[in-house]
Amino acid sequence: MTLVAAREAFSADRARAAASAPRGRSDAAVPPDPDPLPAPLLQMQGVSLEYRTPDRVVRATHRIDLDVYAADRFVLLGPSGCGKSTLLKAVAGFHAPVEGEIRLDGEVVRGPGPDRIVVFQEFDQLPPWKTVAQNVAFPLRAAGLLGRREAEARARHYIDKVGLTAFADSYPHQLSGGMKQRVAIARALATQPKVLLMDEPFAALDALTRRRMQEELLALWEEVRFTLLFVTHAIEEALVIGNRVALFSPHPGRVRSEVNAHAFNLASLGSGAFQAAVQRLHERLFEAAPEPAAPAVPR
Ligand SMILES: Nc1ncnc2c1ncn2[C@@H]1O[C@H](COP(=O)(O)OP(=O)(O)OP(=O)(O)O)[C@@H](O)[C@H]1O
Ligand SMILES: [Mg+2]
């Protein structure tokens, strides 16, 4: 087990212990925890999300409860239509819950902000008339985070981190799909968000590039230790990228269970333990939903 995996296992164990410990106890015989578990950075409490069309209401997620801790690589895994993207949009502040609330650093999320940046699946997230460096620097300037020189310096720093220094002055149409995704990741990380939100960012890439991007994202995480909320419907990707994986049931999405995936990384791919975990998740994802699906509600 690597040091990082050991630390993650330790913090996951502490999270479980904290969750099961009696609350509000003041027992003088119990010494205070020298390193108490921090509060979750991102909390979803009873979050239901809906779409309203003129003739009906579609419930996308139903009462989601999730806690994401700083430096977690938290994966939302579930079948198509279970509300993963909608939940991500709600965390980003683009979709308000009809029930429950989302808190970031204790503050209720009421709209978008530079502390939450989304990287999408599509390659056309970058304005084509800006160079790579201009694309990465732009949000820093637009949000008034930095002046021109500082923005440029920070942009180049993160472009370097994603291995695109030689392309800093190229335009998006001169880049491959994978390179464009790297620019989108550099742009997101440059704003130093509290949470990086990724919605199937590698789904449109070929298998080899996808594997390489997963590797790079993990290497970047080792270096920067950002907090990641990552959506996928690929089981292997969930286990490789995540230290924690929330499994969603089909439409409307509910959290079916949470899985600790800290033991796995790209090196685990061929191992028996990894294949067994994939198989278990596969069975859980496709087993008959125990709860009745909430149908679309006529208005
Ligand atoms: N703009 C919309 N108007 C009405 N219903 C919508 C809208 N967007 C999504 N939905 C519905 O909400 C549900 C959740 O959609 P969402 O896109 O969040 O699923 P998802 O888990 O991200 O799926 P996928 O894996 O295919 O991306 C689906 O039933 C979908 O049909
Ligand atoms: Mg989606």
TrEMBL record:
Domain of life the protein comes from: Bacteria
Residue ranges with Low complexity bias: 17-30
Pfam families hit by this protein: ABC_tran
Keyword vocabulary terms for this entry: ATP-binding, Nucleotide-binding, Transport
SUPFAM superfamilies hit by this protein: P-loop containing nucleoside triphosphate hydrolases (SSF52540)
Gene3D superfamilies: P-loop containing nucleotide triphosphate hydrolases
An example Gene Ontology molecular-function term: ATP binding
CDD domains assigned: ABC_NrtD_SsuB_transporters
InterPro entries per the UniProt record, alphabetical: AAA+_ATPase, ABC_transporter-like_ATP-bd, ABC_transporter-like_CS, ABC_transporter_ATP-bind, P-loop_NTPase
Residue span of region Disordered: 13-37
Occurrences of domain ABC transporter (ranges): 42-275
The family this protein is said to belong to: Belongs to the ABC transporter superfamily.
Stored PANTHER family: ABC TRANSPORTER ATP-BINDING PROTEIN, TAURINE IMPORT ATP-BINDING PROTEIN-RELATED
Identification of the protein by name: ABC transporter ATP-binding protein
Taxonomy of the source species: Bacteria, Pseudomonadati, Pseudomonadota, Alphaproteobacteria, Hyphomicrobiales
